[in-house]
Specification:
Blueprint: H1 2-16, H2 19-22, H3 25-30, H4 36-60, H5 66-73, H6 75-105, H7 111-125, H8 131-158, H9 176-191, H10 201-228, H11 240-244, H12 249-278, H13 286-297, H14 305-319, H15 321-339
Amino acid sequence: MLRAGLKWMFLIIGTTIGAGYASGRELWQFFGHESGLAILLFAVFFTISIYVILNLSFQRKSTDYLPILRDIVGRKLTGVYDIMIFLYLCTTTVVMIAGSGATGQAFNFSYWWGVFFIVIVLILLFLKDINGILSINQLILPLLLGGLLYILLLFTFDQELSLFAHWHEQRNWTAAFPFTALNILPLIAVLGAIGNKIHSKGEIWIACIGSGAILGVISYVYNNSLIQIADELLLYEIPLFAILKHYPFAMLVFMSILLWFAIFTTAAAGIMGIVTRLKKYVNIPLWLLVMVILLIMVPLTTLGFSTLITYIYPIYGLLNLYVLTRLLLYPIWNKVDKRV
């Protein structure tokens, strides 16, 4: 049970910590100053939402997200949100591919080398169906989380930063709602595809509490670090590099590799959500379907990494507020429906 719960926990975190999150760009877009309470609320909302999604997937024994989506938003809006999730997964994957290109540029490689490298690795990953994603998440995520937390805590102690200096200033608490909503939609798609692989409620509890706590802690420490270098962030496509400039080049290389893996795991999760939705309509091998989808996406990456995050993520965050509301209130209105 513990091993299975950790497997789902890493899948959840791997889906969430992508180019936008791990680079710091997404956190800074939503949080920044006076956001300690917002991040705490995010951790709570995220945990509740994940529990509802996993529990529904477990009950339905689902293999794609459509039945789960129908339970969450109702039959009338299922079609609308089905299209929205599909477009969101495509957009997010494009952002991840663009992030791979941006990471390559940091080391003076061509943008397109970074783009095509991640495309090739994603195709190879799906030669083993979705089991490849689950295996690689368990291998990469502990290293990624440990490395990211290490550099953030090192920066905190080196700069003698206080983690709780601004708790009396919390005017940005409402940012918790669009930020959670933004991150929940792809998880409906990904977790809806594994319902038939979950075997107990214990796995669900480990996955939802573990992922919520880990993401809450890392988000708080990360945001606190970015506040200290706020004036420098305009100069960096990837805010994490503004922190890493204080350390040896070897650490920059190490964290850039981990950043690329964060991009890769989220891109893989996005592709997983897309292909599990499409495979019932398209009778071709999974890897071939993945290749076709990725080749369509590549030209869209020319819009630029930070541009995509700046304009697209907040819009989706607001549109997804209805889904978040339904998830947070699901335990209540589901009991009411049963009584009626």
